[in-house]
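Tip: read the tokens left to right.
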């Protein structure tokens, strides 16, 4: 018996540590016991706490329509507790058992966080009432006294920890301190405050704050440079339990509570915990087109399901790809009050050795040698930008910072990336933490096509300096359109500033291999280009290759076209087309050649983003020189149609109808539909067995919208042969 007792005792005790008096305090969820009576010594026999001032009730003004949530822009959170932003005053009312007498009575507030609250760590905060509130510092001031009640205005520090605090009211008596009982109804969440000038995340433009902090839906741009596609994503940062789920992520990452007032630290640990590599984080990535025991990345319509599933199961949610990592990361940042936006970089370099060049090796015939080629160009890659000051860097590098939760390469031993200053990337100052060289390479690498001669020398056939990072975009403020931000990451191609930024980056250690030593003499008097016809999934289309011979010589070009089905990461799955022909190029003239592609050639191997990659190489027989070019293209995927039926009024039942017609020459199997709309309906899924070719599926859902205003409905369809099918509808919900 005594043995079991002692083992239980041991379990409770934290492990001893010779370096620190207290164990690490890195859980917002854990609590300590706080005594209701803290005696100063022997309590005299006749002492009755009831004889002294004591608290009967505390009123928090915490409803969405009341002053605190209105003034602090937290009225949208679906959470019954008080939520305020730091560095800005909020109100509470305390009811005592008798009128408060300032001459003799003494009380103060105590805000506590975690299991080992300490004043010097910011996890134990005593707040004494005084006559003035200093901006951006903890304080309290009595603003109103009436009967037994007082009204307090409380100011939190503009740099205090972000998370959930427990509140106690303490009253001094000659024999000891009397405290209120633990009451979770008075818990207070304190968030970042982009409206407060002293806060590290202060953003001065109201329209931008409404977009980057308060907008709960956004747009993900995907597709490729030639063919930008967009779809909506529901961030849902105000939905029920999401705030707690986001705080849990910081507990999961074991971020010390004292570091949680610093947006740089929060972004860095979050970029690691968003992916499941090395820390069992939120989302397991999968890029191999098989999604057994999970949800295909393209089927998600928003972040809420993913975060809630992780919060309850504590196990990685399957599966995600870059836009899913970025969507969930954006929810996390906006939920905590850090301004954030989702970025798409088209033709993004995944450069395995960060040498600013992607090497594509060609074999003798001019085909890409997949055995040697390790680098890849992603059609697009999504990451996030978070807005904050960077006191750890020289002046001028604050503002937007790149953070990326997609696991690509390790940083300080973990799969994470950022925060890296966008300004530092633009100017080539990649010496400033964190991970700037990797992001610099993603937007600035060159593509080098080279071929090994029989004698072993490497011949560079072509260098493409403009393909990578040629378009970087985000959603515009206040609308669903696209805003190009390429200029925020790089200077104009070929400008002096661009060269200078590159030289700076190389000076700071970005590897750039010289191309001089490898015999580079391109064929300059012939231009080659090719165009892929826009086509709808399931139809035939053609590729047109055109040559312009600017010389006075006749040439013949042995031309080779290779069509590959690729993941959006640029990694090839299968070659579905190879076609070669001889092209006669007359002097001073242009000529073009069509190559037809039938749907039967590509349908069986198609991947979810319907993405193709074409390589065209032409050997000029008379000179032995090679022209090489590559382009990605995507098929048009049919969309879902959404409509509504009934009155669109908050609190009244309405219907949402989703329709889809199967355009393929085959039956769709294992069809799943998802539908969600923040403030209108929670995510619902429905399985359908199959949809025969040309037939239409109709799904009607009844719901009762909660919030009035302009809302968005988002739907997705997923099946074995067809993925990335979306639809959306803006609906104006009226006040009742």
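Filled-in amino acids:
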């Amino acid at each position: 018996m005594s043995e079991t007792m002692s083992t239980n005792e041991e379990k409770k005790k934290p492990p001893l540590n010779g370096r620190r008096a207290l164990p690490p305090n890195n859980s917002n969820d854990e609590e300590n016991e706080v005594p209701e009576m803290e005696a100063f010594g022997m309590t005299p026999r006749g002492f009755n706490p009831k004889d002294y001032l004591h608290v009967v009730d505390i009123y928090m003004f915490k409803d969405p329509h009341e002053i605190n949530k209105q003034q602090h822009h937290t009225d949208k959170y679906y959470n019954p507790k008080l939520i305020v932003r730091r560095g800005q005053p909020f109100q509470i009312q305390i009811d005592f058992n008798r009128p408060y007498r300032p001459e003799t009575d003494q009380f103060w507030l105590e805000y506590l966080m975690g299991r080992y609250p300490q004043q010097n760590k910011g996890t134990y905060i005593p707040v004494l009432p005084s006559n003035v509130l200093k901006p951006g510092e903890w304080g309290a001031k009595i603003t109103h006294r009436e009967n037994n009640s007082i009204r307090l205005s409380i100011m939190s520090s503009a740099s205090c920890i972000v998370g959930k605090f427990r509140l106690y009211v303490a009253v001094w008596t000659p024999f000891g301190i009397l405290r209120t009982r633990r009451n979770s109804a008075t818990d207070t969440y304190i968030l970042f405050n982009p409206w407060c000038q002293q806060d590290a995340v202060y953003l001065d433009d109201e329209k931008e704050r409404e977009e980057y902090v308060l907008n709960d839906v956004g747009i993900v741009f995907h597709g490729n440079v030639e063919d930008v596609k967009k779809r909506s994503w529901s961030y849902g940062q105000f939905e029920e339990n999401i705030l707690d789920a986001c705080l849990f992520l910081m507990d999961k990452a074991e971020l010390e509570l004292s570091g949680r007032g610093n947006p740089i630290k929060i972004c860095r640990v979050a970029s690691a915990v968003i992916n499941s590599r090395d820390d069992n984080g939120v989302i397991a990535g999968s890029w191999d087109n098989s999604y057994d025991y999970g949800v295909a990345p393209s089927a998600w319509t928003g972040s809420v399901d993913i975060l809630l599933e992780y919060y309850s199961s504590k196990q990685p949610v399957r599966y995600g790809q870059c836009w899913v990592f970025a969507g969930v990361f954006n929810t996390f940042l906006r939920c905590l009050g850090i301004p954030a936006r989702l970025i798409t970089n088209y033709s993004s370099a995944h450069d395995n050795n960060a040498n600013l060049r992607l090497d594509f090796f060609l074999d003798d015939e001019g085909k890409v040698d997949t055995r040697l080629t390790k680098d890849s160009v992603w059609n697009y890659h999504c990451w996030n930008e978070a807005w904050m000051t960077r006191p750890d860097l020289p002046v001028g590098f604050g503002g937007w910072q790149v953070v990326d939760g997609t696991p690509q390469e390790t940083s300080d031993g973990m799969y994470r990336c950022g925060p890296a200053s966008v300004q530092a990337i633009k100017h080539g100052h990649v010496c400033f933490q964190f991970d700037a060289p990797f992001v610099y390479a993603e937007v600035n690498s060159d593509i080098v096509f080279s071929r090994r001669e029989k004698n072993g020398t490497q011949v560079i056939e072509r260098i493409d300096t403009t393909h990578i990072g040629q378009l970087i975009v985000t959603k515009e403020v206040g609308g669903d359109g696209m805003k190009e931000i390429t200029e925020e990451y790089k200077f104009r191609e070929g400008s002096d500033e661009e060269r200078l930024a590159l030289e700076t980056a190389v000076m700071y250690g970005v590897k750039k291999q010289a191309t001089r030593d490898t015999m580079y003499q391109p064929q300059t008097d012939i231009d080659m280009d090719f165009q892929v016809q826009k086509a709808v999934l399931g139809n035939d289309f053609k590729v047109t290759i055109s040559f312009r011979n600017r010389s006075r010589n006749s040439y013949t070009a042995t031309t080779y076209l290779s069509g590959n089905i690729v993941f959006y990461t640029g990694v090839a799955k299968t070659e579905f087309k190879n076609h070669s022909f001889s092209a006669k190029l007359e002097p001073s003239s242009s000529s073009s050649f069509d190559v037809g592609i039938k749907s039967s050639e590509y349908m069986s191997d198609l991947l979810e983003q319907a993405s193709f990659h074409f390589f065209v190489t032409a050997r000029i027989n008379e000179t032995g020189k090679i022209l090489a070019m590559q382009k990605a293209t995507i098929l048009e995927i049919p969309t879902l149609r959404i409509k509504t039926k009934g009155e669109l009024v908050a609190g009244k039942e309405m219907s949402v109808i989703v329709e889809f017609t199967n355009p393929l020459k085959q039956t769709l199997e294992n069809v799943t539909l998802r539908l969600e709309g923040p403030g209108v309906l929670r995510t619902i899924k429905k399985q359908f067995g199959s949809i025969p070719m040309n037939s239409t599926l109709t799904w009607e859902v009844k719901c009762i919208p909660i919030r009035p205003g302009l809302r968005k409905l988002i739907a997705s369809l997923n099946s074995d042969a067809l993925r990335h099918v979306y639809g959306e509808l803006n609906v104006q919900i009226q006040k009742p």
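The two ends are 65 Å apart (CA to CA). Residues 322-336 form the longest helix (15 residues).
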